[in-house]
Design goal:
single chain; about 170 residues; 5 helices; about 35% helix; transcription; WH_DNA-bd_sf
Length: about 170
């Protein structure tokens, strides 16, 4: 057998092929666009391609180079000093709950629905503290167009003095 269009000069262009039937027959499967599998055929013969003996050293060198090329690690090592760990200086600090309520109401005036991630970014508050505030003030949307977001409870929407409404409901 002769190969056409080989890119490497060390790659042999002619091979001898040996056919054998001394292995377990295999089947060829195909998958349709609907995801169904079907048997397309059976394989009864095995073909081994061998390069000619005069080029065997060049071919072995080519195989070693190819193996070494794919064995090199592509991972990058990061310096530990550059990676910031959550230490006391990087932690978010809790605000006063009343101050936080006012901030939350201002945010919900701008936009009626917020994700937890966006609220953490906007308020720069610890996640658990923000979740506790959201339990008091908001309803989580499980379904619909606003799935995965929080919106103010009906008693706080459109209220003139929202913090006063909150104090009366928490008593």
């Amino acid at each position: 057998m002769e190969l056409a269009g080989t890119a490497d000069a060390n790659m042999p262009k002619c091979y001898s092929m040996d056919m054998s039937t001394d292995f377990i027959p295999m089947s060829v499967f195909a998958e349709s666009s609907q995801g169904k599998s079907s048997v397309e055929g059976k394989i009864y013969h095995k073909f081994d391609m061998k390069p000619p003996n005069e080029n065997i050293e060049d071919y072995a060198k080519l195989c070693r180079e190819r193996t070494n090329k794919y064995m090199t690690k592509t991972r990058q090592i990061q310096d530990k000093k550059k990676i910031q760990a959550k230490g006391p200086e990087n932690r978010r600090t809790r605000r006063d709950p009343e101050e936080m309520e006012k901030i939350m109401f201002k945010l919900f005036e701008k936009q009626p629905n917020w994700t937890l991630k966006k609220l953490i970014q906007e308020t720069d508050q610890p996640e658990q503290f923000l979740k506790d505030m959201l339990k008091l003030l908001c309803v989580y949307n499980n379904k619909g167009a606003n799935q995965g977001t929080y919106q103010l409870k009906p008693e706080y929407r459109g209220s003139e003095d929202k913090s006063e409404a909150l104090q009366t409901t928490s008593r």
